[in-house]
């Protein structure tokens, strides 16, 4: 991967030794949430220790919690919908959840002065809300769900579109030329679909990250019959600041039925042209030494035995680039925004304390509350939302207890 860094620097892309530092643009090595060389999830990092603290926290007793079972975690439980207080129908008070576990439907109720906190992720929290009667009237009624609170749940579905470009090397085993870590190139794209100029490459106001990693042929259609030691590199431009937004809606009232997801990638032409701009940059990088010399890197999929794409000469027309992007563009698995935090009059579903409008005892804490998608990967921002939410929950709980 150091060859890639050198190739990018040859084009005037500045080196960046800390993408989490003062500026984000440039080429450099990504930072990871790793432990012992392996990726470490937030659950692995925090949940075990957090549960230990809760179980033995002396302050938990006066509030009525038992010492040992202050937190009861149910694995392999699928939440079906929210249970509402039917005695106070107009107030939409959440009192628990219905869930499916070990072959039966069960119910779990909140502790006194507690609340229901949805954290099913960018797709499933909106789905659970809609299954519980909170969402767009038309879609709920079409699925025979009684509307409790009309809100634009499912709208503003955001994600980072990406478009994979691959190259092979004559060096057989990828391990010969990769230290294993992924490299990033973060840059400002050109809005007309041209290769970014020097000024754009040094602009700190970036909108694309190109994620580089060793090629795993099984990731690419048409290459899956080649074994995974095939040497090569993937360069994946990811549009960090998309203009297009999508939506999701219920397909049915069955909680196990996946919702219909409309990502609307590249609906706005600037998204398309910025992606084309980055792909053109990728091609330029691959032509630079030492990639083109020492590693003898060649594009895959264009004018070769793997290619869906044959072109005359070296240039790909903008028309062909458009087809390329629309055919290969895909998700980066960062769905966000479909229960956005904003004033209700501006399409918000949750307020600044992450509480769902028109309900009581109900919060959403996950990527779906982002009003805008972060200009980068979503795991760390989700952790920040969770941390802030924990403060809000403690504040509200303490306030309720002092009444
Ligand atoms: C393949 C992949 C690669 C990624 N790579 C990166 C990366 O490199 N860097 C990065 O920053 N981000 C990455 N992300 C994104 C990151 O994982 C998410 O942004 C982050 O996990 C979102 O957190 P969340 O709490 O909103 O949702 P999630 O982490 O999805 O948590 C939601 C949880 O709710 C559970 N759930 C859903 N529905 C129900 C239900 N009805 N009942 C009970 N439980 C339910 C799910 O099983 C899940 O455990 C990646 C995502 C994927 C899928």
Proportion of helical residues: 10-25%
Which CATH architecture of the largest domain would you pick?
2-Layer Sandwich
Cα-based radius of gyration, to the nearest Å: 24 Å
Q: What order do the SSEs take from the amino end to the carboxyl end, as H and E?
A: HEEEHEEEEHEHEEEEHEEEEHEHEEH
How far the N terminus sits from the C terminus, by CA atoms, comes to: 60 Å
Instruction: Find the structural class using helix and strand composition.
Output: alpha+beta
Number of domains as seen in the coordinates: 2
Q: Tell me, rounded to a whole number, the average pLDDT.
A: 88
Overall outline: elongated
Bound molecule kinds, no repeats: flavin-adenine dinucleotide
Low-confidence stretches: 56-69, 173-180
CATH class of the largest domain: Alpha Beta
Name of the CATH homologous superfamily of the largest domain? Glucose Oxidase, domain 3
Strand percentage, roughly?
Answer: 15-25%
Give the number of DSSP strands.
19
Order of neighbouring strands in the sheet with most strands? 1-12-13-14-11-17
- CATH fold-level label of the largest domain: Glucose Oxidase, domain 3
What would a concise description of this structure say?
The protein is α+β, with helices and mostly antiparallel strands and 403 residues long.
